[in-house]
Amino acid sequence: MKGDGAVFESETKAFRSIISKNDVSGEDNTCPKQDTQVGISGSRNTSPSGRAGSRNSSPSRQKVIRTKPRGFDEETTATFGKVVQPDVHMEDNIWAMLPEDLLNEILARVSPFMIFRLRSVCKRWNSILQDSSFLKFHSQVPSHGPCLLTFWMNSQAPQCSVFSLPLKTWFKIPFTYLPQWAFSLVGSSGGLVCFSGLDGMTFKTLVCNPLTQTWRTLPSMHYNQQRQLILVVDRTNKSFKVIATSDIYGDKTLPTEVYDSKLNTWLLRQIMPAVNLCSSKMAFCDSRLYLETLSPLGLMMYHLDTGYWEHIPAKFPRSLLDGYLVAGMQKRLFLVGRIGLYSTLQSMRIWELDHAKIMWVEISRMPPKYFRALLRLSAERFECFGQDNLICFTSWNQGKGLLYDVDKKVWSWIAGFALQSYNSQVCFYEPRAVKILLHHSPFHKSRLGDGLPWWWT
Question: Which pTM does this prediction carry?
Answer without folding.
Answer: 0.74
